[in-house]
Task: structure prediction
Amino acid sequence: MEFVHKSVLLAESVDALEIKENGIYVDATAGGGGHSAEILRRLKNGRLIAIDRDPDAVSVLTERFKGDDRVTIVNKNFSDIKQVLSELNIDGVDGILADLGVSSYQLDNDERGFSFHKDAPLDMRMDKSGLSARDVVNGYSESQLRDIIFRYGEEKFAKSIAANIVKERAKKPIETTSELAEIIKYSIPARARREGGHPARRTFQALRIEVNRELELLPEAIDNMFSVLNGNGILAVITFHSLEDRIVKQIFASYCKGCECPKDFPVCVCGKVPQGELPFKSIEPSEAEIAENNRSRSARLRAVRKLPKE
Result:
C-alpha cells in the first residue's frame, strides 16, 4: 500500500517558516513527504532534515528523495531532535515544521489497526514497536482505561466503556478493531450514538495517544525543537485536537512572556525576557481545503519565532 498523507495546511505551514533558500530546515514528522517536498521546492542550496518515527514512512521518504543531496532522512521520534542534529554536527536550524496528525496510510492500512472503520488487529503503534493497543485494552485495569478514555478522548461515557471492555475481555481477549468498536458502540446510549460522528472515534483517539505517548512526549519535543532554532528561526506546529493544541498554545505563550515584576516596580528585578514572538495567532484550513480533505477539518497551525539573543 502506498504511503499517502494529504498534507494539511501545506502552503500556510511552509509559508510560516519564511524559507531562506540557503537555510537549514527540519520536517520533524515527515510522513509521506508532502511538506518536505514543498520546503525543498523553496530551497536552493539549503538543507532539509526529514524525521519520522514510522519505518514505513522512512522507506517512502528514502525512495521519494533519492538522489537529492540536500535531504537527510532519519528514523527517530521528533522529541529526539537534539540528538539527531548533534549526530549530524548541526548546531542550529532556521525552521522546524511538525505535523502531529496521523497519516492516511496509517489510518487506512488494515495492518496498522488505527481505524474503527476496518476490521484489523488492534495495534496503533506509529513506530511498530513497544506497547500496542491490544496490550492496553487487555492489560490495563478498569480505572486506568476509564482515565485515559476520559482524559485523552474527552469521552463522557468512559466509565461504561471501560467497564464493558473489562467484562468482555474476561470471556476472551479483545483482538481486533471491530470487536472493540462494537463494545464501545453498545456502551454508549443510542441517542448519543447519533451525535458527533462514529461512537468509537474518541476512544480510538485516546488509545492511540496512550500507545504512542503523544501528549506525554509533546512538551519535551516542543522545548527541544525550540532550543535548536537559530535566532529568528521559526517553529510551526499543526495540531488536530484540542488537547495537543492547548499544550502547543500554552508553551508558545510561555516563550513570549517577559518581565513578571509588579507594575509598580521602577525597574525589573526578575530578569525575565521574552524568548520568542508569535508571527500570527493561529490558522485553520479554508472551507475549500476541508471540502477536499475532510480529515483537515480539526487542524490548526501555530508558530513561534525565536528572538535573537542580545
